[in-house]
């Protein structure tokens, strides 16, 4: 009998082992935890109890020391953890270090260095182009197929799943308004994304090649890039989104290591334009991921965006982000951009799902164009694992509260 | 006789006292220093030698603890430092703690949390509009007079004055090119800016009012927002500048406390449009600063931008930055945007000084449209102090090197 029993088919079985940071009602000390089913293993305490050398990486209040340790250490620690949770002899030692998930508090698992957000779904970019520039012949901007468009967001307002999101106030101006007005956003939206977490830093002046993606990126999480469309529309020309996005970005409490997602790797969609060499992944290993995302508002599923449809991969995004010599730091986070599939039921934002309010969603408690105070948005996802199993991603959830 | 003699008229006299972080050839330990003329006082060692309670803020490797201590502590520490450097009895104690500026190494003085860049000079925005949209009737975008336009930059690539800047590579595409090409930027530019350093944090969901600017902002520095115009032009629609800016941002090694700039406060230019209440500074104390900036390339002055001409003040920028509930962290840095005066000799970028290359500058070693490898760009500034004195800002300098 293994030390910990996880029900057959549980997406958080011993082949998953995502990392988070938690505290308990007995101790407010933050520590690294590893999720197993509906329990959390105190990974640092386990390392200490078993005399593991990895205690120096795991008995810490954030994931940053583990992130900074690099690819070889990540694999070694994962191998050790796999042994701990599967070898029956450890049962007595480790059982007291297992906490029910419902009884712990989960924290932001790492200190975010820089946060960048991309725009990598062709479906999303086409939908946004059609909505905002209905008269344009081509919904994509001329650069879209040549580079993964991105911009920097606010690292200081990245919050962990479960944190309430205060409805932002700001300026907005409808074309019919003579002057801008100020008030709470009336078009508060979501964006379902996948966030990639950088572990290994890189020096200023040294681009990171496509092939080195897995040496630098530790893992991924779900990310909700909350967006105030009315604030964004008035402010974003010419320097891009600012206050329409900077009030909050939610991430899941669990970081899934790339090592847990080997079976989920897929080739990205066929490229329609030739790529410059630093972005050309035709000869690289597949760097897309088959993640099946689900978005629910107040418990009702409203969309199921497939991450496998993303035109630009996380490896291309990292290569682009650094090609000008920009350095990477441990804790850098970058979002994929809104994930939207080709079908209407696969769109990753209310902007697209309601076509900017024209086609409201029907929820049990009424119609929705954009979010109302009290709405709880929850994104979850899973990926194919070995032998038909599923690898679960931690959910990212947040409730909208009035400002 | 005071403990330290600073020549009459030196802009780094005892009414200035900017803060930096330095190390010496004897000890690589980083410590807080205060500049006095062409010397640096080891402020933490001084506090320890004099039994000051401020040793806990000054005997540290970065300014962050001092920044986090808040407005009252900033004033108290400044008062103490002023006494130390002016009371003759301290001479014997402090003389050994004074290092010649030429013999120390200066470091990035604080850990940058988030970096935001604004666009607050009307002259600069009009020049940029005329250059990039020559056919438009109005060079300013419709939002420009209603809000201080800004965007997030890359905090991880903020470097201290003296750091070489590697010419970035990236994609560019001239209108006549069929497809983008890749290579080193051929339009590498500068932007002369003033950077504001946040000390006191603010919680998520709580805007910072105009009147609270000085409770949150500790001081300012000079900032060079290096810009690759060709990379920027191809990438920036629709989400703003990214790789055209993210390769490096240089800041001066010295942070001048706002308390040293009381005599330099001036009213901003007359507002031509009514402002929403959160930005309306008509009844506030003047929040502009009369800083006289000078830009030199390879030692030759090419421009003298006056900071007093900025349309949006740093107080308005902070109020705008937080009005959506975005939190502040100790170490947040925000740039004013390129400082350009009304006259051709007051423009803060080569884009404007050479009108995008049309009117090259004449330098002793030849013409310049944009920067060449080996060029050294140095920005310096001073502000009026008490009794006709000058308060110097630390220079920000950087040399362009080939990638």
Automatic annotation (TrEMBL), chains A, B:
Q: Which residues form the Fumarylacetoacetase-like C-terminal domain?
A: 116-400
Q: What metabolic or biological pathway is this protein involved in?
A: Amino-acid degradation; L-phenylalanine degradation; acetoacetate and fumarate from L-phenylalanine: step 6/6
- A Pfam family of the record is FAA_hydrolase_N
Q: Which cofactor does it need?
A: Ca(2+); Mg(2+)
The protein's matches in SUPFAM superfamilies, at most eight in alphabetical order, are given as: FAH (SSF56529), Fumarylacetoacetate hydrolase, FAH, N-terminal domain (SSF63433)
Name the NCBIfam families for this protein.
fum_ac_acetase
Q: Which Gene Ontology MF annotations are present?
A: fumarylacetoacetase activity
Which key words are in the record?
A: Calcium, Hydrolase, Magnesium, Metal-binding, Phenylalanine catabolism, Tyrosine catabolism
What's the protein called, per UniProt?
fumarylacetoacetase
Residues in Fumarylacetoacetase N-terminal domain copies? 15-109
**Keyword Ribonucleoprotein included in the entry's annotation:** no
State the EC number(s). Answer: 3.7.1.2
| Presence of the UniProt keyword Endoplasmic reticulum in the record | no
Question: Which taxonomic lineage does the organism of this UniProt entry have?
Answer: Bacteria, Bacillati, Actinomycetota, Actinomycetes, Kitasatosporales
Q: Which domain of life is it from?
A: Bacteria
InterPro entries documented for this protein: Fumarylacetoacetase, Fumarylacetoacetase-like_C, Fumarylacetoacetase_C_sf, Fumarylacetoacetase_N, Fumarylacetoacetase_N_sf
* Listed transmembrane segments: none
């Amino acid at each position: 009998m293994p030390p910990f029993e996880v029900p057959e088919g549980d997406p958080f079985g011993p082949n998953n082992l995502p990392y988070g940071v938690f505290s308990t009602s007995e101790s407010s000390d933050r520590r690294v935890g590893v999720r197993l089913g509906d329990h959390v293993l105190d990974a640092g305490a386990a390392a200490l109890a078993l005399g593991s050398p990895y205690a120096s990486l795991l008995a810490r209040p954030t994931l940053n020391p583990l992130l900074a340790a690099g690819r070889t250490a990540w694999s070694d620690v994962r191998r050790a953890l796999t042994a701990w949770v599967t070898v029956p002899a450890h049962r007595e030692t480790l059982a007291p270090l297992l906490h029910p998930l419902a009884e712990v508090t989960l924290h932001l698992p790492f200190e975010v260095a820089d946060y960048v957000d991309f725009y990598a779904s062709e479906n999303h970019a086409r939908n946004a182009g059609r909505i905002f520039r209905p008269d344009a012949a081509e919904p994509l901007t001329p650069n879209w197929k040549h580079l993964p468009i991105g911009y920097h967001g606010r690292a200081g307002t990245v919050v962990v799943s479960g944190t309430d999101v205060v409805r932002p106030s700001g300026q907005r101006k409808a074309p019919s308004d003579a002057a801008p007005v100020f008030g709470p956003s009336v078009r508060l939206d979501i964006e379902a994304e996948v966030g990639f977490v950088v572990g290994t830093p890189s020096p200023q002046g040294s681009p990171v090649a496509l092939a080195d993606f897995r040496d630098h990126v530790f893992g991924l999480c779900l990310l909700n890039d909350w967006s105030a469309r009315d604030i964004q529309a008035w402010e974003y020309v010419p320097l891009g989104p600012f206050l329409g996005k900077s009030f909050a970005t939610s991430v899941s409490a669990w970081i899934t290591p790339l090592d847990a997602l080997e079976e989920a790797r897929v080739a990205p969609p066929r490229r329609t334009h030739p790529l410059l060499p630093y972005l050309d992944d035709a000869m690289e290993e597949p760097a897309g991921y088959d993640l099946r995302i689900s978005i629910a508002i107040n418990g009702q599923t409203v969309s199921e965006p497939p991450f496998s449809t993303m035109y630009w991969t996380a490896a291309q995004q990292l290569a682009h982000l650094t090609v000008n010599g920009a350095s990477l730091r441990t804790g850098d986070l970058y979002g994929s951009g809104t994930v939207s599939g080709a079908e209407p039921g696969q769109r990753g934002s209310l902007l697209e799902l309601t076509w900017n309010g024209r086609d409201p969603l029907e929820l049990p408690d009424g119609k929705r164009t954009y979010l109302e105070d009290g709405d709880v948005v929850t994104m979850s996802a899973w990926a194919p694992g070995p032998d038909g199993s599923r690898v679960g991603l931690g959910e990212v959830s947040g409730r909208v509260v009035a400002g």
